[in-house]
Design goal:
It is a single chain. The protein is of the alpha+beta class and 445 residues long. Strand 22 and strand 23 form a beta hairpin.
């Protein structure tokens, strides 16, 4: 009877211990489930699809008029963000808009600038002293034309000076380590592309021109570590080979032509953004209707320093998709932000590839109405700031990337269940062996 009573107590203790282990394991499982839940803040309800590389997303919107659009974003040395785009003002005018956020994404101030027509900023940079440069297009309603324009503001957003180029359009601009501005100008007259280099005081340093026998249109510009210049865009072919072809060109630091490549098929292919990594590999994002699955797909290309294609990728659904901007993190991962059409609506999409071109994830963000992803900045391997437009408002998205949560990157419920079963089995085996040995020892006393 003694042994029987002792056995009951020990069995009871055994089951209590097993229940504690199960509860702890289930707690771990529920923690994983919570991590996989909707990452959007509770006051923002949106349609989301994700492929497990974004941990959390926060968003801010800026609503100044009936239509506000952000095209470009940059960052100063203190981590403040500056957004350029346009806003609609009274009498159906469209002015440039400059918005400053601090490094916590808190709104600081805004400034509008423009003339009497439809004006828009297309690119923005900040120099080492905090001065802000914006480039884009202004409409001259007196002569019914559009002119390229460069504007300088001080660090508080006060206008300093501007330059104009008649019958032209500016899409891309970059600043070098010496605070010299390099502009790309599309010339309406002859379809050529101009490069212009200005000091921070507005003095022209050099200029160069490049073009094919077709209409050439530049959309973006980049520098490598040797200050060589790269541009990308579209060649609008005329004649028997009619079509639109993606191109990129390399120049030295004085704007002298070094080489170029084209990419595409029989339909429309265009480069929208270009970057160069520390090994002088060249990355280009854009659109293609020659390849892929949809009407327009996002294309991502990687070229070597000798301008040889390393790999090419396309991404899209059966509708229209566009890769507007590209970013690289310190590990060499490539991010593309753009627009993906979904049931006649446009959503913001963010794609991720590793440096070998392996697709590692996507994120789709949308709501009723149209959204568009326009530009991005990578703060580090774990934080990305993206600029977009949602339902006529400018939106700023902060992505916490999954590298910061590596233990959840490989989340798999079957893996957690396996761990649970393993520990339960191991614990039960140890307790059972110990329990049998005690009974055996008591029986032999």
């Amino acid at each position: 009877m003694k042994i029987h009573f002792s056995l009951k107590i020990k069995l009871k203790r055994l089951w209590i211990f097993i229940l504690i282990i199960i509860s702890a394991a289930l707690g771990l499982l529920s923690e994983d489930a919570n991590i996989k839940s909707d990452p959007i803040k509770k006051d923002v309800i949106h349609r989301i699809s994700s492929d497990n590389f974004v941990h959390k997303v926060y968003n801010w919107t800026w609503d100044y008029s009936e239509s506000d659009v952000g095209y470009c974003i940059t960052q100063d040395l203190d981590g403040n963000f500056y957004i350029g785009g346009y806003t609609v003002v009274p009498w159906d005018k469209q002015d440039w808009v400059l918005i400053k956020f601090n490094n916590k994404c808190e709104y600081q101030w805004h400034q509008t600038w423009g003339f009497n027509g439809v004006d828009m900023c297309r690119d923005i940079v900040v120099d080492s002293l905090g001065s802000i440069y914006m480039a884009g297009v202004i409409e001259d309603t007196n002569f019914m034309r559009s002119d390229a324009c460069l504007v300088k503001f001080d660090s508080s957003g006060n206008y300093l000076w501007h330059y104009e180029w008649i019958n032209s359009y500016c899409n891309g601009m970059i600043i070098d380590p010496s605070d010299y501005i390099i502009l790309t100008i599309n010339d309406y007259f002859n379809g050529d592309i101009q490069l212009l280099n200005y000091s921070n005081s507005g003095d022209l340093q050099w200029s160069s021109r490049w073009g094919t026998s077709n209409l050439d249109w530049v959309r973006n510009i980049a520098l490598d570590q040797y200050q060589n210049i790269y541009i990308t865009g579209s060649i609008y072919k005329i004649g028997e080979e009619e079509g639109i072809e993606l191109f990129f060109v390399e120049f030295n630091n004085r704007g002298q032509f070094l080489g170029y490549q084209t990419w595409g098929g029989k339909d429309t292919d265009s480069g929208y953004s270009i970057l160069v990594d520390s090994e002088v590999n060249i990355y280009i994002s854009g659109i293609t209707s020659s390849y892929g699955t949809g009407a327009d797909d996002i294309c991502l290309l990687k070229y070597s320093s000798s301008l040889e294609l390393i790999w090419e990728r396309t991404w899209g659904n059966e509708e229209n998709n566009r890769g507007n901007a590209i970013g690289l993190d310190p590990s060499g991962n490539v991010y593309v932000i753009g627009t993906s059409e979904y049931e006649t609506q446009d959503d913001i999409c963010l794609l991720k590839y590793n440096k070998k071109g392996v697709f590692t994830g996507y994120f789709i963000w949308g709501d009723t109405g149209d959204q568009s992803g326009q530009d991005l900045i990578l703060i580090n391997s774990t934080c990305l700031i993206a600029l977009g437009t949602t339902k006529g408002d400018i939106c700023l998205l902060k992505f916490e990337l999954q590298e910061n949560y590596q233990s959840h990157d490989l989340y798999n419920p079957w893996y957690s269940i396996f761990i649970l079963i393993f520990f339960l089995g191991l614990t039960s085996t140890i307790i059972t062996i110990s329990f049998i040995r005690r009974i055996y020892n008591n029986h032999n006393k």
